[in-house]
Amino acid sequence: EAGVVQSPRYKIIEKKQPVAFWCNPISGHNTLYWYLQNLGQGPELLIRYENEEAVDDSQLPKDRFSAERLKGVDSTLKIQPAELGDSAVYLCASSLVSSPYNEQFFGPGTRLTVL
Amino acid sequence: QQQVKQSPQSLIVQKGGISIINCAYENTAFDYFPWYQQFPGKGPALLIAIRPDVSEKKEGRFTISFNKSAKQFSLHIMDSQPGDSATYFCAVDTGTASKLTFGTGTRLQVTL
């Protein structure tokens, strides 16, 4: 079974430029998460989707970050404009049902460097 | 306010030794306590998890000890192997929030 797929794996951009990350969850998983992981820190939830609906986006900086999950499958996270402080790893995860007792499967992440 | 405090930040253990990582939390509403393992360049992967209705859970060489009254839980890795060298994160969650909150991580190095 294929795991969570993320692309690109690495991205280097100049500050103020836009950037987008793509995630394909495990087939059949209806819940999708985007996390931010700073160097030496644990992942922090940005947004959680149940199917197409963003059910928790309280931690998403909405002035520059946006996300979508069309058709309840793939998802895209966008930053516009990027700032130096956005340099981090962006992780996507999915789970079968929206329950804390269901394992979240993480992708390898996209490492973003903002110069 | 940090929801979960993890220690130590880093740990060096000899092969065959016991690795112990600790986490403490404040919110008594948390009722799910997983540990995740992360290798460089990879996403975290669930290692083992416990609910507060038991005080210990063992899976192979990995054991979670849970102390509800002290609001602490720990990961024990028995017979540590070089392949266990990774970063370990504890996490907490509630049944209603479905929102994992991770600790700051412990970088484990198992030496030969």
List keywords for this structure.
heterodimer; A: 115 residues; seven-stranded mixed sheet; 11 strands; globular; B: mainly beta; six-stranded mixed sheet; five-stranded antiparallel sheet; 53% strand
Walk me through the structure.
The complex is a heterodimer of chains A (115) and B (112). Chain A contains no helices and 11 strands. Chain A has strands at 5-7, 10-13, 19-24, 31-37, 44-50, 53-56, 65-68, 75-79, 88-95, 105-106, 110-114. In chain A, the strands form 2 sheets. In chain A, strands 2, 4, 5, 6, 9, 10 and 11 form a 7-stranded mixed beta sheet that branches. Chain A has a 4-stranded antiparallel beta sheet with strand order 1-3-8-7, with no helix packed on it. The mean pLDDT of chain A is 93. Chain B is mostly beta strands. In chain B, 0% of the residues lie in helices and 53% in strands. Chain B has no helices and 11 strands. Chain B has strands at residues 4-7, 10-14, 19-25, 33-38, 45-50, 56-59, 62-67, 72-77, 86-92, 101-102, 106-111. In chain B, the strands form 2 sheets. In chain B, strands 2, 4, 5, 9, 10 and 11 form a 6-stranded mixed beta sheet that branches. A 5-stranded antiparallel beta sheet of chain B has the order 1-3-8-7-6, with no helix packed on it. The mean pLDDT of chain B is 94. Chain A binds chain B through residues 4, 40-45, 48, 56, 91, 93, 98-101, 103-109, and chain B through 6, 32, 41-46, 49, 51, 89, 91, 93-95, 97-105.
Describe the structure in brief:
The complex is a heterodimer of chains A (115) and B (112). With 115 residues, chain A is mainly beta.
Q: Sheet bearing the most strands of chain A, described?
A: 7 strands, mixed
The averaged pLDDT of chain A comes out at 93
How would a textbook summarize the main sheet of chain B? Answer: 6 strands, mixed
Tally of alpha and pi helices of chain B: 0
Low-confidence regions of chain B: none
Helix content of chain A: under 10%
Strand-residue proportion of chain A: over 45%
Q: How far apart, in Å, are the first and last alpha carbons of chain A?
A: 37 Å
- Morphology of chain B: globular
Kindly report how far apart the N and C termini of chain B lie.
Answer: 39 Å
